[in-house]
Write a structure and sequence with these properties.
Elements lengths: L1 E3 L3 H12 L5 E4 L14 E8 L12 E11 L7 E6 L3 H9 L5 E9 L4 H9 L8 E7 L2 E6 L2 E6 L3 E4 L8 H12 L6 E4 L2 H22 L10 H34 L4 H14 L6 H8 L9 H11 L4 H13 L1
Parallel strand pairs: 1-2, 1-5, 2-4, 3-9, 5-6, 6-7, 10-11
Antiparallel strand pairs: 3-4, 7-10, 8-9
Helix pairs in contact: 5-6, 5-7, 5-8, 5-10, 6-7, 6-9, 9-10
Length: about 325
C-alpha cells in the first residue's frame, strides 16, 4: 500500500502500518524537505510518539517507536500503484492523485482520508485522469501533529470509519481485503458501507461550523459554545446541511434509497457539533492554524461546497455561503 501525504495524518498511518508489518510506501511530493533526509536506498526513519501508549495491536502502554519507511517521490517513479491511502489537504488531493495517474493501475483503489470527502468524491469522479479507478471514503477522529520532519505525535486516540457511495463498483472481496490491511494499523477500520455517508455528513457539520467560526474569531473551539452568535450559526449551518443531504439523497436514490441511508437529522448534526466543540474546547482548529500560518484553507470543500450544492439543488444555504465568503476575504 502507498500513502499519499507526508503530513501528520499520513505519517501516523504510515508508521502504524509499518509497525504492523504492512510495509507501506510513503509518497513524498517533489521538493519535500523529507527527501534530503532519506537514505541512498530511499528509506526514512520516522519517530512515532503515542501519548496514551497505543501499541500496534491497539492495547495501551506508553510507547515511542522509530520506524523505517520506504519512500518514493510522487509522480517520479514507474512502480505501479494498486492501492493508495490519501491524507493530503483537500485542495491538494485531486491534483496530487492526477500527478500519479501514470502509476495508478486501471482499477486502482484510492482510499481518501482528507477533509471534505463528499466534495472530493465528486471531483475525483469528474477527473478524466482518474477515470476507472475506485474510491473508498474515510473519516478519522485520531489526532496527530508533526513535531518536526521526522517526528509525529499521535496526540489523540479516536476512531476511523470507511465506506463508499451507493454508486461504487468496487468488488466486495477486494474492498474487504483493503479494509483488513488498513485495520492492521490498530487505528480502527470500521466498515460502514453506504452507511459511511452518515459519518461523512456528521464530520462535515463539525468542520463547517467549528473551522470557519474559530478561524474568523481566532479563538479555540470551545468559544463558539459561549457566544450567542456561535450557537445561532451552529443551528443554522446544521439545518442547511440536513436540507442539502436530504435533497441530494432523494434526487440520487429516490425516497426508498434515501431512507436506507439513515442520514442524520438537523438535531443530530447539532448535537454532534456541540459534543465535538466541547470535547476539543481548548484546541485550535486546522483552519485557524492555516489562517495564522498564511496557508490556503479547505473552505471550498466545506462551506463553499455546501453553498454550491445548495444553489444547484434549490436549497437555502445562505449562512454557509456567508461563512465561506468571510473566510475568502480573510485569507
Amino acid at each position: 500500500m502507498h500513502v499519499l501525504g507526508a503530513g501528520a495524518v499520513g505519517c501516523l498511518w504510515s508508521a502504524r502500518l509499518a509497525l504492523a508489518g504492512a510495509a507501506p510506501t510513503l509518497l513524498l511530493r517533489p521538493g519535500s524537505s523529507k527527501i534530503c533526509l532519506c537514505t541512498p536506498s530511499g528509506t526514512v526513519k520516522l519517530r512515532l510518539e503515542s501519548p496514551a501508549g497505543m501499541k500496534p495491536g491497539g492495547e495501551c502502554g506508553q510507547s515511542t517507536h522509530v520506524v523505517e519507511l520506504k519512500t518514493q517521490v510522487a509522480g517520479q517513479d514507474n512502480m505501479p500503484i494498486h492501492t493508495v491511502l490519501v491524507a493530503t489537504k483537500a485542495y491538494q488531493t485531486v491534483a496530487a492523485l492526477e500527478a500519479l495517474h501514470a502509476q495508478l493501475v486501471p482499477d486502482a483503489v484510492m482510499v481518501v482520508l482528507s477533509n471534505g470527502v463528499l466534495a472530493l468524491s465528486e471531483d475525483i469522479a469528474a477527473s478524466p485522469a482518474l477515470a476507472g479507478r475506485h474510491t473508498i471514503l474515510g473519516s478519522t477522529t485520531h489526532g496527530a501533529w508533526v513535531r518536526d520532519d521526522l517526528n509525529v505525535v499521535h496526540a489523540g486516540i479516536g476512531r476511523t470509519w470507511f465506506g463508499h457511495r451507493p454508486q461504487s463498483h468496487l468488488e466486495a472481496g477486494r474492498y474487504a481485503e483493503i479494509l483488513a490491511q488498513l485495520n492492521k494499523s490498530g487505528l480502527g477500520a470500521s466498515d460502514t458501507g453506504v452507511g459511511f455517508l452518515r459519518h461523512a455528513w456528521l464530520k462535515l457539520a463539525a468542520n463547517a461550523v467549528i473551522n470557519p467560526l474559530t478561524a474568523l474569531w481566532e479563538v479555540p473551539n470551545g468559544d463558539i459554545l459561549m457566544r450567542e452568535e456561535g450557537l445561532a450559526a451552529l443551528r443554522s449551518v446544521c439545518q442547511e446541511i440536513s436540507d442539502v443531504a436530504t435533497t441530494m439523497a432523494i434526487r440520487e436514490l429516490g425516497p426508498e434509497g434515501y431512507s436506507s441511508l439513515q442520514l442524520p437529522s438537523a438535531k443530530e448534526l447539532e448535537e454532534f457539533v456541540r459534543r465535538v466543540a466541547a470535547q476539543t474546547a481548548g484546541n485550535r482548529s486546522s483552519m485557524l492554524q492555516d489562517i495564522l500560518a498564511g496557508r490556503p484553507t479547505e473552505i471550498e470543500f466545506l462551506n463553499g461546497w455546501l453553498a454550491k450544492k445548495g444553489q444547484e439543488l434549490g436549497v437555502r444555504t445562505s449562512v454557509c455561503a456567508r461563512l465561506a465568503d468571510s473566510i475568502r476575504q480573510k485569507t
